[in-house]
Design goal:
Length: 451
């Protein structure tokens, strides 16, 4: 596949990272601390959001796998969803209810638009991500392209996590929503330029829904990955969601310093992607994924103690080392899982796997909301005062370091049993190559449109 096409496809990571990370980091801060939505209502809303995830992610993946059009089964969803997704994202940040007496209406608006956000995120991102294993079959190519994807993803992360304090602090939350909504739509449209599908995979007869779900949940490789990944994603979401509170109440710094703390992790992570790429090719995805878990757990320990902005900045930069490993390797691992599934079912079912992965790992947001609600309610948090009680400051350290370390250790233990490594993985690649040769599959990267 020509280099510019790889970059165009990879540019879609800007939309996926910016939209999801800005949402998971700031949505509770915005609705609870800024709009004054009661904490218990925000927790109820996030639980509803989690249930909605249980419905839309696997179903969207299944529908994608079964779609038959002249343009393919993935590309039409990206093309049709890109612009509406950007508009919904803007509306998420402009609730018209700000009075204390309108808490009920604000809650309804919150629930409706977080569910709409997730619906459009699912439709566009699952289909974009599902093209990755199909377009890039080898470990070296997957590692290469995912380094590009995640470099763009880091740009999206920096924009979505580090930039908001600067934007909402100067021109308001509504402008942040408008700017980010436009970036989301544009990056998805650019990704279309590099997206290709294989006609053979698009025309395969897929297995029925229940059989598809059953086969997915019987896959041991997938289960060990996805439940390990759930705790990894919980680690990310709770750290990122806690940082704005940590910066405001523990470090006593403003939006610019909050931006710096968030940016430090991702500025470190970008060059580290290419080191993790080399390590993954040399030592394998399983070993490197587990090493990233342990590194991140160690680098979180200083957050139990730091009190100054500069020490927190240094700790954040160290966190970026482990962060980049997860970001690079996760998609390589799920691509291997999908290859293994093809040897068992005879079908390429990227949509189902990415859909179920999204369904399970999105519960990380529900766990995050539950964790934060428990800490906030038991430590006497009050959004109407600036100087919070000491119990709340201790609670923030538990949220930003204690719970994430426990989650990473659980993820490590679960992933220990992941089977696709070493000789077994090499044998899998040989079987997949034989299956593709029998199907007459050629690389989708060298032609135009469907192959």
């Amino acid at each position: 596949m020509i280099f510019p096409r790889k970059l165009a496809y990879s540019f879609g990571a800007v939309a996926t990272a910016l939209s999801y990370q800005a949402f998971s980091t700031y949505i509770l801060f915005f609705y609870v601390d800024v709009m004054k939505l009661p904490v218990y209502l925000s927790a109820v809303g996030m639980i509803i959001y989690g249930i909605w995830n249980a419905i839309n992610d696997p179903i969207a993946g299944y529908i994608s796998d079964h779609t038959r059009t002249r343009w393919g089964r993935r590309i039409p969803y990206i093309a049709l969803g890109a612009i509406p997704f950007g508009i919904i994202y803007f509306l998420l940040w402009v609730p018209p209810f700000s009075d204390y007496s309108q808490a009920g209406l604000l809650f309804l608006y919150f629930v409706i638009f977080i569910c709409l956000f997730d619906g459009f995120y699912t439709v566009t991102v699952i289909n974009w991500a599902s093209l990755f294993p199909e377009m890039f079959p080898s470990l070296s190519e997957r590692s290469e392209v995912n380094a590009y994807r995640q470099s763009f993803g880091m740009l999206g992360l920096i924009l979505g996590i580090a930039a908001p304090p600067l934007i909402y602090g100067s021109i308001g939350w509504e402008w942040m929503g408008a700017i980010f909504g436009a970036i989301i739509s544009i990056s998805l449209l650019v990704a279309l330029l590099g997206s290709r599908e294989n006609r053979i995979f698009s025309q395969e007869k897929q297995i029925p829904l229940w059989a598809s779900i059953k086969a997915t949940f019987k896959n041991r490789s997938f289960l060990t990955f996805v439940f390990s990944n759930l705790f990894v994603q919980y680690t990310f979401t709770i750290i990122l969601a806690t940082i704005p509170f940590f910066a405001k109440y523990v470090l006593d710094v403003g939006p610019q310093q909050t931006t710096a703390v968030l940016a430090a992790a991702f500025l470190t992570a970008i060059p580290m992607l290419y080191l993790w790429r080399r390590l993954t090719v040399k030592f394998g995805a399983k070993r490197c994924f587990m090493a990233a878990m342990l590194l991140l757990a160690v680098f979180l320990i200083p957050l139990f103690f730091v009190k100054s902005f500069w020490l927190t900045l240094f700790a954040s930069a160290l966190i970026g080392i482990g962060l980049s490993g997860f970001i690079l390797i996760a998609d390589v691992i799920i691509s291997d899982v999908i290859d293994e599934d093809e040897t068992k079912t005879g079908n390429r079912r990227e949509g189902m796997y990415f859909g179920v992965n999204a369904f399970i790992t999105r519960f990380a947001i529900g766990l995050e909301a539950f964790s934060m609600a428990i800490i906030f309610l038991t430590s006497r948090y009050n959004p109407y005062i600036f100087t919070q009680p000491e119990e709340f400051l201790t609670g923030l350290r538990i949220l930003i370091a204690g719970l994430p370390i426990i989650a990473l250790l659980l993820a490590f233990v679960i992933f220990w049993f992941y089977p696709l490594a070493g000789r077994r993985l090499k044998e899998l690649k040989i079987r997949v190559a034989k299956i593709h040769a029998q199907k007459g599959v050629k690389s989708v990267g060298r032609g135009k449109g469907l192959q």
